[in-house]
Amino acid sequence: MATRYADALPHPLRFEPTPKRVPAEVADTTMADSENAVLVLRPEDDVRTERSKRSEQPMGDAV
To answer: pLDDT category, 30, cuts 50, 70, 90?
Structure first.
């Protein structure tokens, strides 16, 4: 059963375990590779988007 870490936090962040493998690469070098990743989810209202843009390399079904 998944642990709901957000229940103990005073803000609306949600932390959800994911069964997917999550690699992180920088300049063709693997910096992290986790099979125990945790997604951090927050309401869209809290995210500043004026400087964001869509990725040219979307993650597909990684999340």
So the answer is: very high
